[in-house]
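Design request, tokens follow.
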């Protein structure tokens, strides 16, 4: 895949994907080329993209390995699926704060093992989000939130204006 085609796909899909994942307020930058030893371990997306998400500043950098899309049956589709996968890493980025918080208290010799478990857990969370997304988009599943809103009594304007007042 060329940088030009990748840029077209990013420009026409990144904002829509960010909105769909609830992170349109994040600043997401795109870089071409992975850093040494850096590759997403997620199912099916090995070596295609990585995402470095900094929750405290709501900024993320998605790195794209253009070579990984060579010789693919449908490189555009794989590209968009990988981009969507990386977007889910942004969704669960707040858990990185936990990792940073515990690092000073973990013995160095145990840190690699803990990171391996964390990486595996993160990828499984992302995979579950992908299943959830597939379910919502490919099956006739009623949206729970919509059902609850539809069944709840209408909200009275007075209760909003005076939330702590008498009922
Ligand atoms: Zn991943």
């Amino acid at each position: 895949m060329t940088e030009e085609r990748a840029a077209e796909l990013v420009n026409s899909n990144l904002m829509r994907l960010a909105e769909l994942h609830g992170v349109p307020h994040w600043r997401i930058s795109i870089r071409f080329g992975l850093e040494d030893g850096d590759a997403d371990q997620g199912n099916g997306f090995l070596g295609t993209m990585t995402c470095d998400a900094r929750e405290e500043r709501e900024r993320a950098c998605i790195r794209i390995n253009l070579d990984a899309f060579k010789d693919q049956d449908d490189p555009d589709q794989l590209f968009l699926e990988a981009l969507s996968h990386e977007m889910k890493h942004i969704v669960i980025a707040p858990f990185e704060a936990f990792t940073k918080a515990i690092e000073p208290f973990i013995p160095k010799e145990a840190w690699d093992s803990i990171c391996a478990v964390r990486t595996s857990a993160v990828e499984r969370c992302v995979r579950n989000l992908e299943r959830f997304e597939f379910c919502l988009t490919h099956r006739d599943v009623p949206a729970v939130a919509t059902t609850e809103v539809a069944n709840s009594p209408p909200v009275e304007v007075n209760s909003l204006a005076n939330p702590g007042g008498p009922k």
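Comment from the thread starter after seeing the answer: thanks! The first helix runs from residue 3 to 20.
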